[in-house]
Write a structure and sequence with these properties.
Two copies of one chain form a homodimer.
Chain A (H helix, E strand, L loop, with lengths): L6 E5 L6 H14 L4 E5 L2 H7 L6 H4 L1 H18 L14 H9 L6 H13 L8 H10 L4 H8 L2 H16 L7 E4 L2 E4 L4 H17 L1
Parallel strand pairs in A: 1-2
Antiparallel strand pairs in A: 1-3, 3-4
Helix pairs in contact in A: 1-6, 5-8, 5-9, 6-7, 7-8
């Protein structure tokens, strides 16, 4: 078996626990010299496949109440600004199309971080083109061109394919980390995913 | 506000992630000088309240597949024996009545660890009195007396009350840790619960 080439970070812009993951994944991976691949997808179709038409945090309010408190604590620990969004979940389609279409651009990490901050620290409506545009500008990206390209049939299809791929590879929530076929679910599994990657690449070097 | 007096460990013997938690909670807490209270309860009524008549890991097979793999990885990391139970979830009523009735006995920690090992390392049917009896004997407990007392109306009512209390205090899964009103859910939140306890007791000492 060939060693994994990167840790894939699968994220959904409406996903709450993806917020802290998005803010720390690049720095934590860089400190270990591990390449990250940014994989935007949509949770809607994934949840739909499980029989849900809303976030499970809305469907199961007791779990939802816990999640918001838990997220608040995590943000305090990480020193991240947090304001509970006045709308949840927010429409992530446009931002996800941009992130999927431009996943290899040098500004992708900054863009992803900005969108999460807009949603979970600034309570802005990330479904609106002007908000996504602001995030692109802050990330140093060509905003107008990126938004225009995100509206093409190719960009739309790319996001649909990514979401299909996520489901085929066993992803059922966000954030998720894939190292080859090995799946890790949750912000609190980032370190385990990086450990897995390190062990797999090291064992190949030794063999 | 008075400081919390202990970290409450809420567990269900059929719960998969409670297995690693049960094996490490006493040692981790002891290393920090934190008292632990053992709180057995039943997840059945909790899940029933969420509209489920089975474990969500059975209802949502994609999530279930992930959980078994994740649990296996966690056990490897902790150097814990693991064999996937041939039946899941196993009936935990009798063992939970024993643990609830005798939660303050000196043998409670050993008994809880033994029941989880029987279920998740030895693939034994913990719903059977002879298996629970074995676990009591291994823990140095008076097995016959404990089983007889667990069958009394008072012991049955105590477990029902504990499960009611869990739901009233926001517990929706296992393992859970309660520090006063503060809830932490999951084996991977044990350290956060202990940190929370330490900060609360320290701030009271300083004030």
């Amino acid at each position: 078996m060939s060693p994994p080439r990167a840790v894939e970070f699968w994220f959904e812009f409406a996903s709450t626990y993806s917020y802290p993951a998005s803010q720390r994944v690049a720095a934590v991976a860089r400190a270990r010299g591990t390449p990250i691949v940014w994989r935007a997808f949509l949770l809607g179709p994934v949840f739909h496949g499980q029989g849900w038409d809303d976030s499970p945090f809305n469907i199961y309010p007791v779990k939802g109440r816990y999640m918001w408190r838990d997220l608040e604590r995590i943000c305090i620990d990480l020193d991240l600004p947090f304001r509970r969004p006045s709308q949840f979940p927010r429409g992530s389609l446009l931002a996800a199309r941009v992130a999927c279409r431009f996943s290899s651009e040098h500004w992708i990490a900054d863009f992803v971080r900005e969108v999460y901050r807009a949603n979970f620290a600034e309570d802005r409506d990330i479904s609106q083109p002007e908000v996504v545009s602001d995030c692109l500008v802050r990330a140093g990206a060509p905003a107008d061109r990126a938004l225009a390209e995100a509206a093409t049939p190719e960009a739309k299809q790319a996001l649909r394919s990514a979401t299909e791929e996520a489901m085929q590879r066993g992803v059922f929530g966000a954030p998720s980390f894939l190292v080859g076929d090995e799946l890790f679910w949750g912000n609190d599994r980032l370190e385990a995913a990086l450990d897995w990657y390190a062990a797999r690449t090291r064992s190949v070097e030794l063999s």
